[in-house]
Sequence to fold (400 residues):
Amino acid sequence: MSDARPPRSLSIVLIAAEESGDALGGALACALIEQTGGAVKLAGVGGRAMAAAGIESPFPIDDLAIIGFNSIPRRLPMILRRIGEAAEMVIASNPDALVIIDSPDFTHRVARRVRRRLPSVPILDYVSPSVWAWRPGRARAMRAYVDRVLAILPFEPAVHERLGGPPCSYVGHPLIERLSDLRPNAAEAQRRRVDPPLVLVLPGSRSSEIGRLLSIFGEALAQVSARVGPMEPVLPTMPHLLPLVRTGVAGWALKPRIVTEATEKWVAFRNASVALAASGTVTLELALSGIPTVAAYRVSLLEEIVAERIIRLRSRLPSVILANLVIGENVVPEFLQRDCTPRNVADALIPLFSETPERAQQTEAFARLDRIMALEAAPSAKAAGLVLDAARSGRGATHS
Fold:
């Protein structure tokens, strides 16, 4: 009679604090279940995506959504309480590995508490903080409580090595798993070449961004239309922002078609000829979709002074546009703060409506992204493999 026992199920905790991190956590959880044949016990903090993968959060992460500096003092006691609750949940679980996902202001505080109480548990950080942009000293500081970074941008492992950060592995950007949403079929590619051109207008996902950019974008499109001719603007947004967007475009000379369903958004991506977008992850979505783009951004003077983000980015980096940083070339024009004017934006958009060197430069650069971003494997699968290696081997192996 054999006394062989089935292998022990691994215990892994995932901590996410906002919707984008929850999406990563949900995909990672599914990959962990698949790669272990279900022999994994998952727990953590997350939202709907992680709940769909079987992770029951002890509190709703909607509590942690913070937009703007004015919200922080009022909500700080609640946020600190949630940090403590998350850390205690991890400590009580005593898992084989902890994965913190993005939102470093929250998740890194959880990780530091866990490291003090459970020093032998491997801690992996899925999505590197932007140490390449600002506060580079965070990279070295992370070594005290992060054993490996799972990076979603291809240049980040070299950055962490240069700055003395934890070991860092590029696993791929989550957009790689949505290429079918972003890239046109033959009929959609043909629509990109047909008049009137479809123009994507993407003023951001925060009310403050929308409030500052919509009037600039509207005036810029009016100037472009006066010089280029008819066009079809499409403005994707989220349902809860619809009243704000409708108010913001009420005075536009060229009214956009507003869409709130994800399927409509991706149809617009696959049919669009040109885009005008707020700086952010969306610029990488547009680049992967092959849409020539102009990017712009404004924050309030107070936010610029307090965060110094734009100042720091401009002094340390050749660009603040994510697509430019990944490509390694400033192909997407960017207009920030005082440079973000209707005239500047319109002048940069106009050459993108015809077969010009400006349009060709962008489309040729975007075509290199498949190689640059190593699109051959799903990022969640790569990340799951590294998490499982750490869980099975412990902290020492995580650093190898």
